Amino acid sequence: MTHDTSRSDEVIEEKPALFYGVFQKAYPYKALLVYEASGQVSKPVAVVEIDRSLREVDLSQVKFLDGGGADG
């Protein structure tokens, strides 16, 4: 698996990474106006290990190279 280290749609560099899985990231949303409701915003993220460090990355930045999955 590789991780795209660019921050846009243009791929600048891919680094080998160990894939740990897909997790749910959540953070509170505080209402700014009286009639708005507070709540929680959630989104899926991938956790990968690059250079002995765990990193949280967007799912679109993960590319599997093992040939498995739906296309392999």
Description of the structure:
The chain contains no helices and six strands. It is mainly β and 72 residues long. The chain has one domain (2-63). The strands form two sheets. The chain has a three-stranded antiparallel β-sheet with strand order 2-1-6, with no helix packed on it. Strands 3-4-5 form a three-stranded antiparallel β-sheet, with no helix packed on it. β4 (39-50) and β5 (53-57) form a beta hairpin. The radius of gyration is 16 Å and the shape is elongated. Residues 7-12 have low confidence and may be disordered.
Contiguous helical run count: 0
Order of helices and strands: EEEEEE
Structural class of the secondary structure composition? Answer: mainly beta
Oligomer: single chain
Q: How large is the share of residues in beta strands?
A: over 45%
Shape estimate: elongated
- pLDDT averaged residue by residue: 81
User: Between the first and last Cα atoms, what is the distance in angstroms?
Assistant: 14 Å
State the low-pLDDT regions, or none.
7-12
Q: What's the structural domain tally? A: 1
Strand segment tally: 6
Major beta sheet summary = 3 strands, antiparallel
Neighbour order of strands in the largest sheet: 2-1-6
Helix content: under 10%
| Rg, Å, rounded | 16 Å
